[in-house]
Amino acid sequence: MKPCSFEYVKAESLEHALAVLVEHGDEAKILAGGQSLVPAMNFRLAQPAVLVDLNGVGALSGIERVDGMVQVGAMTRQRSAERSSVLSAHVPLVTETMPFIAHAQIRNRGTFGGSIAHADPSAELPAISVALSATLQVTSSRGSRSIAASDFYVDLLTTALEADEILVRVDLPIAVPGSGFAFAEVSRRHGDYALVGVAASVQCDASGVCQQARVSLLSVGPGPVLSTSCAAALIGERPTTRTIADAAAATASDDIDPEGDIHASARFRRHLARVLVERTLTRAFARAAVSAGAAEQA
Amino acid sequence: MTSIIGREIKLEDGAPKVQGQLKFGSDLVLHGQLYARLVTSPHAHALVTAIDTTGATKLEGVHSVITAVDLPDIAPASRSMLLLAKDRVRFVGHPVALVLAESEAIAQDAADQVLVNYEPQPHVTGLEATLALNAAPVWPEGLPGASAEAAAHGAVGGGDSGGAEASPNVAGDSTFERGNLEQGFAEADHIIECTYRTAGVHQSYIEPHATLVEIGPTGDEATVWTATQGTFFVRDAVAAVLSMEASSVRVVGTPVGGGFGAKFCLYEPLLALAAKVSGRPVSMTMNRMEEMITATPAPATRVKVKLGAKRTGEMTALDAELVMDCGCFPGSMSILGPMLMGSNYQCPNQRVQGVEVLTNSPSTGAYRAPAAPQCAFAIESAIDEMARALDLDPLEFRAANASKPGDKMAMGNPWPVMGLVEVLDAMRNHPMWRDREQARAQGRGIGIAIGGWPGGIEPAAAACSLQGDGVLQIQISSVDLTGTRTTFQQIAAETFGIEPDQIRIISGDTQSGPFAGSTGGSKITYTVGPAIMEAVAEVKQQVLELASGVLEADAEDLEIKDGAVQVKGAPQSAIPLAKLARKTMSYGSTHKPLYGQGRNAQPGQAPGFCGQLAEVSVDQDTGEVTVHKLLLIQDVGKAINPLLVRGQMQGGAMQGLGWALYEELSTNEDGQTVTATLSDYALPHIAHLPTEFVMETVEVPAPTGPFGAKGVGEPPVIATAAAVANAVADAVGARVRSLPLSPPRVLAAGREN
What we know:
The structure holds two protein chains of two kinds. By secondary structure, chain A is an alpha+beta fold. Chain A has helices at residues 14-24, 37-42, 78-82, 85-90, 92-97, 104-109, 112-118, 124-131, 149-152, 228-234, 241-255, 266-297, and strands spanning 7-10, 28-31, 50-53, 63-66, 69-73, 135-140, 143-148, 153-155, 158-159, 166-173, 179-187, 194-204, 210-218, 225-226.
């Protein structure tokens, strides 16, 4: 189908894009990779008056390790993140998750920041940004600010970004010794919107006691959902099959409020959430143990 | 020259297709053409009380907005004659108005501004709801006439109608009986009684419907370019609405980017009328959402099966009832269904029934082996359940009851030559079946099923001429969906004695070419092939006679070799074919052109069977099914081009995996199709290809098929879903009786166990 007519602005710089946003406010929409926005426009579900294209702003792309962070430019293609040796060495959860995002052709075009700013509740990157305690750097003509990923997702397709702000960079803390991670999802077909997905990021001390358990779920609420039950049940404990199963069960029953749709009922989603939290935590703690052991040997 | 029959020649038009060079219907543009967009109903059933087109027509670039008042008052006896709603819409997606504009985008802008007042009426969706005696009638004023489209795929005739009190929406009911059911069940050691369901699925051709119509300058001729499987079928429909003689309508088939039964005739009559009313050529290419909402998918079904058998493996009784949700028009399959359910096995006592019901949904249509995947899922699952219950080998249980040529089909007529037994023999000997215990030891499940298709027939003619460059030109009018043009090159080349690259196949339109039936029912090679052979043989005879005069030798002593005619064994005598042909095409020549004709009407059908074996694993926590291996063994009569035969088998089985695991058209209670995009409607992807995907053929020649060939298109889609379901049952002991086998269903079945 054809989109409604709109004005197109190719931003020459970040400042140029910000100025267009000031001028047009809500009427303007940022075009990043376009993998969600353009289909929505073609279906006429989105009818922006002005499209501000960031694809010419090279400064917004790139992956770099800076101090204890890996900084990912918002316009970095998802495929570049998938293949990044910096990310695989220091934020391996990203590398494990990327193949679950749609298909390679879409990841070639789709951007890291675009997916986070779009805030689709079934998207993988918002969920792992929460699990990893990412910090989102945003800019407007008024200045810049940082937003914790867990404060960024406000509601369905709604973020803490103001109409004149642009997400410019995602800062991901690098994995420390004793940390482990895992991602899993179930979808109708690989590449489809997940029925349920789970990102787990845990950390244990040298004695195997859990210091951190951030488990973030997708497709079970209006945005990514951070499990409070997992943190409560696991931090300060040595994870066992039993405690992991209990934490998964509590997450599925208490932390999420999934809706049913044509692909899966709410009940089925709760079931999948339990199964996947259990699987990801088991894998994440196993990796944490290996990581802690390796650190000790070193 | 080695035989050309059995040679693996690549598709003649394969490279231009993958290189994006082939021109499809939507690539055609005529000077002055208008672009059409539909305005469709958002209601499942409503009265149309007013249509306000003023806003739409005011937009710059809009030519006009056509509504029912602009069109002749034609009784909508079939879906393609529904045209535009006059006063009532019967499904969400029912066309109400057609906007004509200078561009597609403008037409869409205008379509969005056509205001229609609706008065919603009680509607009914879903098979169970519409079976209720008090269901809201889909056609309160009565169903308008019989469906002409219905006959396009009918492969059988006859049948009785059940006389019981029925819902107002029962549109067809055919039952075939034999023996004594009661006695048969009394003789049984075990009885399986189960209900199976299959989801409505969409043919999901890549190319959407695309049509362009131009009315001739005098107004009494029309040309239609359209992606159809049946040009003559479209011709008759368009001629009827335009009140023209059929011969005044020229239908040019454009390359079909996937048809699978859905591209017979849909909007061609409406667009022809739009061209007539507007006085301009009119083009319309549907978008995917319109395809999902307003086209003609395959029906959802419910099949109740009661099967009785003896411990010795002898079937004693079969009582099967198929109900199909046909949407707002009947679909002609009430007879086909029982035939498919009650013919493959010899059961002495049986009653097989097919019921068509109507709902306020898009009318359904043919999809590759219409009704067969649904029937096979039910019957082949029930047979598997019986084998399990009686501890019988599922393959031997099938083999013990399998029909052979001469055995009775459901309607009582005898099976023609067919190879079900040979297919089962080949499966029995295949390592994937023989080594099944090894797979089971790894926690995997093995399932088998068989599917049969009766095959279609329809007359066809062909013409052949030898050109001055030595190329043998074949004129036909059948639509090529699956590589038949390449197959025909091989048939003609073998018949004449030259290489296939010396054959040119010319596909004519309904005025320039000889008649051929629609491409549907697995019949083009089987029916057009012999016509080509006859035409080629005639030209060959003419060539030999001409050469006989030139070489002063008896025609019987001549042979065609290396593109020339020579006295047998005497290459020094050779005269090139081109030279001979030119003798018939020169000024002052006294030799008649080398031109032959062939005609064919097959005396009977050539059924094809395909047995399938699936090896699966099931994630018992999530309900996800992975098909690791899929084996197809099909009787193809004779594989004229094994490459193309395997391609058809692979394509059919991939669509079968869609039936099995993914595809499901969903409608909400308001009658809205909620799976209206290919994001929500799950087609199998290339990633779902089984790791081992094995195609094997057996050849039981069709007596009147070209070189023994029979149709291969439909059989491979039929048994996949049943084989996968049987494999899932084998893996986890959970019997899923609804398609597709989605994770929630598999998980639920596992819990019940």
